[in-house]
Input
Amino acid sequence: MEIRWHGHSCFEISNDITIVTDPHDGRSIGIRQPNVMADLVLISHDHWDHNCARIVRGNPKVIDSDFSGTVKGARISSIGTFHDRSGGEKSGTNNAFLIDLDCTRFCHLGDLGHVPPEDKLAKMREVDVLFIPVGGVFTIGDKEAAKVARELRPKVCVPMHYRIGGLSMSIGRVDDFLGHFPEEQIIRVGNQVSFERDDLGGKMNIWVFSL
Output
């Protein structure tokens, strides 16, 4: 299994198939455009920095709304959430996605804007890899993200949607989120990591990707 980060909330998850999450066009947010080919694209919400499926090569199936089903061997389930703290009145709705691929469960929270209620959290638990926004302003910030991560207790927590060099959006730094956890839990993995599910330990680690 491989995970590669393309900046912001865009990840490439690959095994027998390739899944791309929340693709952006690069230019509009000041970073490099992803160079990706995929079988499946997941779009958490219809905002310009998350919905650029046209840049993904390979004629993938695009899921951008409520969904539950199996696509090319991957089990996909959406969980409806909000992009803000006011029930979607300000920024609309957001889909978190559960992805079951080769006995590994991923959860991509998209632009989650609030701490979900217990009934939603219950559906997100027992995941192996959690992708969580941490930069605030448009999503939950570092304190809320740390709370959600501790509630969900994934084997691996991957922060996303934070300030990096060149990004034209004024959002928080990943270090603000990392400051809520002991250093021994934090692993800087570079741009891409390969792993087997059995490699993931029982205690939550935080994988910090870079471009």
Residues 2-209 form a domain with the Metallo-beta-lactamase; Chain A fold (CATH 3.60.15.10).
